[in-house]
């Protein structure tokens, strides 16, 4: 009997998700032993100090006040214009780059990244990202018959690895018409690293040089999923200004999402936002990405768009939004500070964390170490080259003492970091 009838490109695909698998084991443990006994460091959404999912209060209030029509009506294919204007404004803040800026509503940052890859690379192309990356990038590339290629994000001393970046970009530009590069900064998932303004300058200068005078293009997908919890509101956005005045064959596309910024994760709303000096390229961006929207999800979630519109048109609500985000940024920072201080004290190495939802402990045999930790009711996510801890979801009380537990498990597994 036939065991597969899938098309050739789909055969053998399955989403083995280490995060979901660890989360499922954790849920089982909680059911058996109670939440107090278990540390769940797998969840990539913010949990408050009581372990409950954070929904920003201003979002809760605004969502609850929507009319049935706002909730159920179809939206235009590219999204409501008020939403697109608000998304551009919320994304860039005071650091709006110069140039033609256009946006299309997408189902979260995922939809934005997928569509950028789909419309700016060809089947068989390699798409470049960092070796520490959010696992879904690989699914997005492979599902679209592209190949994900990694460069090393960090040097030995924990700064951006220009050598690896430049080598990989040079090779890709030599062999492809378009090179799509996905950079998740600030607050990289899973490391918490972010490029400094000087590092951004050097990255962009190199990209200019790499395609100068060539019929080649670079599409820089700037994944800013954790932007609103990465630092002071305007300071963490300063790098966006550098996306203006680039040559026309380098186009930043910002993958903006309301998942974390508005705690609207499951409502599936984001935007892809382009910056280009050429109006024709901006028009093409709208045309081709609207086409893909129509061909896939059609139109984005009206209720999430209206929630965003209603908040951003009211200065009092914006002030509440900013204040709540700042409070939760502080909550995550305090947790990360505890972990980093204790890690330093017990000799546990971690990757350079600046901000964001995750801290990574670089190790080999992460699976083995995570198994040992799970016996202690501690659930973290094993990655290829490390272990990911979600500081967004572990309370200060539970994070206290955790570094020593991880160190002990690494020693017990006989691993030297
Ligand atoms: C690095 C990164 N980019 C993008 C996303 C996109 O999420 P969403 O599609 O919910 O906006 C996530 C979510 O976990 C992420 O970790």
Annotate the secondary structure layout.
Blueprint lengths: L17 H16 L5 E2 L16 H8 L3 H5 L8 H12 L7 E7 L1 H13 L5 E5 L5 H8 L3 E5 L10 H14 L2 E7 L12 H15 L5 E7 L26 E8 H4 L8 E7 L2 H17 L6 H11 L2 H32 L11 E5 L3 H10 L2 E2 L1 E2 L3 E5 L5 H4 L2 H11 L5
Parallel strand pairs: 1-10, 3-4, 3-5, 5-6, 6-7
Antiparallel strand pairs: 2-8, 7-8, 9-12, 11-12
Helix pairs in contact: 2-11, 4-11, 5-6, 7-8, 12-15, 13-15
The site of pyridoxal-5'-phosphate has 13 residues, from helix 5.
Explain what you see:
The chain has helices spanning 18-33, 57-64, 68-72, 81-92, 108-120, 136-143, 162-175, 197-211, 258-261, 279-295, 302-312, 315-346, 366-375, 396-399, 402-412, and strands at 39-40, 100-106, 126-130, 147-151, 178-184, 217-223, 250-257, 270-276, 358-362, 378-379, 381-382, 386-390. With 417 residues, it is an alpha/beta fold. It has two domains: 18-57 and 318-412, Alpha-Beta Complex (Aspartate Aminotransferase, domain 1); 74-314, Type I PLP-dependent aspartate aminotransferase-like (Major domain) (Aspartate Aminotransferase, domain 2, 3-Layer(aba) Sandwich). The strands form three sheets. Strands 2-8-7-6-5-3-4 form a seven-stranded mixed sheet, with helices on both faces. A three-stranded antiparallel sheet has the order 9-12-11. The radius of gyration is 21 Å and the shape is globular. Pyridoxal-5'-phosphate binds at residues 44, 108-110, 134, 184, 189, 223, 225, 257, 259, 265, 270. Homodimer. Residues 44-405 form the Aminotransferase class I/classII large domain. Belongs to the class-I pyridoxal-phosphate-dependent aminotransferase family. Keywords: Aminotransferase, Pyridoxal phosphate, Transferase.
